Amino acid sequence: xxxxxxxxxPRKNYNTSQLLEKVVEGIKDTLKDKTDDVQIEMINLYDLExxxxxxxxxxxxxxxxxxxxxxxxxxxxxxxxxxRSCDGIVFxxxxxxxxxxxxxxxxxxxxxxxxxxxxxxxxxxxxMPMGIIYDMNIKTDNPAFPFYNTxxxxxEESFLGRVYTKPYSLK
Length: 171
Description:
Shape: globular
Number of helices: 4
Strand content: 15-25%
């Protein structure tokens, strides 16, 4: 079994990464009696060179060599290819300016857009479980908090959920 844990924080040893380390412990603990073959790959996005979607639409050409995949050759190309068949993904998302940060937004564009259905067809190889931990400095009793839920729900339902599965989330 293979899982990906994606840290989009520029600070590798602070809140987001500490929460993700607990996720890794939880996955290992949950699966320890079920299988000996558990691989968990922690990816720190700030260690990689990549961009968001370039809107080349090569991934949408049904007869083309890149149908359903992103043709951009950079540090996340192989990661994205492997993630399409993994057993689960957890994102760690620091919140900047009332949304996930740009590194994660660019990553999700590249992960989802090649398989994003414009019609009622599904080309996704595997609808694996997903999770997102939103790390932000706002309390749930803040009057602005409902706005955050609206933003996060849109990401979870309209993009990740439409292509893979609606993620479990912690806010």
